[in-house]
Amino acid sequence: MTSTTDAPTTDPRDTASGGREVQVLYFAALREQVGRAEEQLTLPAGEVRVAELVRLLEAKHPQLRLDAVRVALNEEFADASAPVAPGDVVALIPPVSGG
Amino acid sequence: MAKTYSDLFADVRSSVRTISLEDLKARLDDTSRPRPVLVDVREKDEFRAGYIPGAIHLPRGFLEMQAEQKLPDKGAEIVVYCAGGTRSAFAAKTLSDLGYENVLSANPGFVRWKDLRFPMEEPPKFTDAQLERYSRHLLLPEVGEKGQAKLLGSKVLLLGAGGLGSPAALYLAAAGVGTIGLVDADVVDASNLQRQILHATSRVGMPKVESAEKAIKDLNPDVKVLSYRERLLSDNVDRIFGEGWDVIVDGCDNFPTRYLVNDASLFHKVPVVHGSIFRFEGQVTTFQPFEGPCYRCLYPEPPPAHLAPSCAEAGVLGILCGIIGTLQATEAIKLILGQGDPLVGRLLTYDSLRMTFRTLKLRRDKTCPACGENPTIREYIDYEGFCAGA
Fold first, then answer.
1. Does the N-terminal peptide bond of residue B108 adopt cis geometry, omega within 30 degrees of 0?
2. Among A24, B140, B201, B351, which residue has the least CB neighbours within 10 Å?
3. CB pair distance less than 8 Å for B277 and A99
């Protein structure tokens, strides 16, 4: 017989900011533009779609250029109209061409 | 008193069920029933001279040791054959003793099968030098003689004999890819040698395709090299892509060519293994035309030109090219062998500083202008203008 004891976990929704955080990952040149590889972002209230998230990030980081950048939510590419939920992992992937 | 051979054989024959060659052929031709597992228990030299198509080669001397590995389903219908029916009878008895439930011995055997002009196959012919060179591939069931013969008969086109093309070309040549095409207009520069391991200090100033051919031929004389000392453009892409390539490995270094390669590979229906790099990071994916997403499904728009620095402008960790280029070569070899799961519909990203790989799922875009339901790109466009205008 086995018993499981659930270790206390931090629900990403259960934070001081009202639990609306997403983890944002920056790839390639975007890292230099924002000066970091990842950060937490608090979503505004209401429904947030990928297009709005992109605008929020550009507003937060004026030097960030997200033209042509693709967004993946939880390891899957998403289009501009896809809803973003608290707790999502958002990867921002620019095309690179070096060979 | 100990049994004589005649006693032993009589015992075996009485306990083993047989199938005539005519019945076996009818059974193999009958597509309405599952095919029996055919096991050829002759010696290697006999097998090499020809066998019944689809047969598994399991010489009688290795039967007990290898049966469970090569014949995992003990309930499957198994037909064992040899040259004349004697060794197969003993082998069938052994398999029954090992718990195989449904074993038949073909009678008489392959010699008669051949006389009857029933279908047979010959294994690929290799020279002694090839058997030695590719011995580690030949040991792998996923490659084996058939796979190695596929590699030797395959044609892979490398776009760029630079950072990504270098490791890809070397490993594809080593693997015995029979024909390697190289497209590159540049000459070897000293600043290339930090990462472009196909070239050499002694060959600085030489056209890259020529330097590459020397390295490839030196590594593996089996490989035929087709060189295109030109820049890939709309007006030469059909000539170059039209030469019957099995796979294209894209290691070029600019966005206009990436979009041109995409559109041309869709027109020519050739899979492209894409690799691209930036400083410490790389991306790899495989575009299988009209089966998975294409480059335009992934990146519909090129980045603004001033935000797309080249390696010459941005720098690149030399060894990153080795990682990404060898991943591309791995994909190319898998496609040729028909083994494993290629990166179709998946973008692999690699970060050498954090030493992390991520795989991101990607779907085909129904509205893709190149491979979607109503494509608008039906001929080549002005790629320089497309990328400059972004």
1. yes
2. B201
3. yes
